[in-house]
Amino acid sequence: xxxxxxxxxxxxxxxxxxxxxxxxxxxxxxxxxxxxxxxxxxxxxxxxxxxxxxxxxxxxxxxxxxxxxxxxxxxxxxxxxxxxxxxxxxxxxxxxxxxxxxxxxxxxxxxxxxxxxxxxxxxxxxxxxxxxxxxxxxxxxxxxxxxxxxxxxxxxxxxxxxxxxxxxxxxxxxxxxxxxxxxxxxxxxxxxxxxxxxxxxxxxxxxxxxxxxxxxxxxxxxxxxxxxxxxxxxxxxxxxxxxxxxxxxxxxxxxxxxxxxxxxxxxxxxxxxxxxxxxxxxxxxxxxxxxxxxxxxxxxxxxxxxxxxxxxxxxxxxxxxxxxxxxxxxxxxxxxxxxxxxxxxxxxxxxxxxxxxxxxxxxxxxxxxxxxxxxxxxxxxxxxxxxxxxxxxxxxxxxxxxxxxxxxxxxxxxxxxxxxxxxxxxxxxxxxxxxxxxxxxxxxxxxxxxxxxxxxxxx
Length: 459
What we know:
alpha+beta
């Protein structure tokens, strides 16, 4: 059990003023995250600028006290938990420093809320592509930390593909500037994309230069029902092989469809699988893009294909996808929400394996998500107050990961590793690869004070 040295407490109080808190209410408010895990921090630091962050890290390094960066704590993997550590809240570093429309970049601090940034950018006719489900709550810093994605990643890429440069504080307390405001850069090592997705284990991001995209003038949607997951996966392969990139390509398995219809009240017929397909672009060319996607969606196993040529009709088509959260809560009070990724061609095998696990462990498991990237959310639904269900749910989880890895997949597409999947990293990577990762960690954070116990398994 780590305790705060009195000299460090005095130093942080002098440095941060009312931005340093050790009272029970503040610590409790910063103890949990979206994983529903709880770990009480030793204190909560709320720096106001990068210099305070650097001074905070240097002070904690001298006293060997760990630090854990924290945005809105929507993480589902426990990455933001700060047990036996100081939680570093970036709530006060929430400025949009600048929007440079001509360069299509925005410069922001880490505490900016994703949704607030999108609203500010919309007045310039721009948007930042990462659009996780928690966009109205999550911070840009958190998006950067876990390389967040969302439905639009199929066309525009995940967070890593939409950041150009960073200012960050390493575990030494040094302020480093990596990347640039240019869309091309072949100068030195690409430390920007190394830090993005490192979950605060390498450095604390204090400013980011983001790559923006023009807001599409129009959108249109398709909903395709298939006899089974294999037919839907074949359609995904056809869609991704032709020149028109969908702006969204979402998958639902048979269990999801049944849940959306019977519990969520969605207007959707029985089917083995469903694809939600969206195109965006210019008003004049959008019909041609939609027609190309419709041609690719057609093929063996197609049961029905509906078109939504306007936003209102599109919202009706997307109602099935949006009804899932409500429907899941109606049949189970808890879920293990995983975001595994496999090659698109292996989606049928993944779905079949998930169905087999559901039968074997006698527990509902549904699969849906970002089909164009092979990134499916496998939700294991259970009642934590039922000892049998709780045990079966947690026994099914490692089998799900083993299945994913056996199909040439990976543990996470957008949620990250945190503590939830840390032990599985030794299955996903061989010893030399993990050793290389540990060497990178030691170079950025030689004393191991940044988010210890996350991402990398114990040596």
